[in-house]
Amino acid sequence: MKNKNETWSEYLNNKNVRPKVYNLSLRRDEQGNFFAIGGQTLMADNKGHSANWVKVDTRDLVKVINEAGIKAL
After folding, report:
1. What is the pTM of this model?
2. Which regions of 13-70 does DSSP assign to beta strands (E)?
3. What is the secondary structure of 55-71 as a DSSP string?
4. Measured between alpha carbons, how far is residue 62 from residues 18, 35, 38, 47, 67 in Å?
C-alpha cells in the first residue's frame, strides 16, 4: 500500500511494488474510444488473509497503463 507522503503517481510508477489487482470502469463511445470513469477505480490491498478495496487516482492509473501497455491474461 502506498505511504501517506507518496502520491498515487509515484506509487504506481514504482517498479518494486508487488503485483496488485485493480478494478477500473471503462466507457466506450460511438467511435470506439475507451474512457476511464473517474472516482470508481479501486485496488485490492491484501493484508494477510483479508483484502480491502481502496480508491486509486484514475488519471494516474490510466497514465501508467498507457505508458506500460496492457496485456490480456
Report:
1. 0.81
2. 22-23, 26-28, 34-36, 42-47, 50-55
3. E--HHHHHHHHHHH---
4. 18, 9, 10, 25, 9
